[in-house]
Structure formats: C-alpha cells, structure tokens
Amino acid sequence: MMDRRGFIKASSLAAVSLAFPGLANARSTSLCYPPGVFYTRKYPGKWAKKVGSHAPRVKVEGCKVTIITLHPMSRKHYIVRHTLVTEDGEVLGAKTFTPEDKKPVSTYDIPKGKKKRFYATSFCNLHDFWITEFTV
Fold it and tell me: How is residue 55 annotated by DSSP?
C-alpha cells in the first residue's frame, strides 16, 4: 500500500503528464490545460479569487529557479508540492511540503543546455493544481 507522500508524488507526476500531453513531442508547443483539472493565472476557472495565493511565481537568477507560492500554511489548508518541469516533460525537481513548513518556496538548478521553456507547478490541498509557464 502506498503512503500519503508516495500517493501525492505519484499524483503530481501523473498530473504533469496529463497537463502536458504534447510534451513527449518536443516540437509541440500548444499545451492543453483541461478546465476543472489544472489552473493558471489566465485560466483560473472556479478559483478566480485564489490566483494571487495559488498560482506559482517564478524568480530566475542565473541557472537557479525559485518557485514561490504566496500561500499561508496551516494544518487544514496548505501547499502540498512544487515541481519544475521542462518543456519536453522532464521533471527537474520537486519538493513536498507539510503544514508545518513556514512558506512554500523551493529552488532548483537548471542544467546547462536545457530548453528555454519551463513549467512551475503548485498543488494546494484544497484548491487544486496550478501551473505557471515561463522562459529562461
């Protein structure tokens, strides 16, 4: 039987695969964000009032990417996970949070030679899976 963290990790990776069906083909640049499953700043769906505290923000400094979700952390409502994904679907890093973490912030290295388009994800235990696309 899979524990809670294993389930969250597997679910996040499966969600990234579903969110980016064209990523296996690196030439595909049109992404599909199914409504009601994945949310972005531009397409927040039913969570329009939650964009500011749920859509991941990205800070790039050289070869380092920091993902920040401006979200309070409490036992009942918190950010569960961040993931950094390349445009062709490679997961460069992921961090799982607990309600005890003070802030949902994670930092990753971008290996030299990686493509320029990336996706930062943030998963809230109550308000679903959020994606921010960015280029370096």
Answer: S
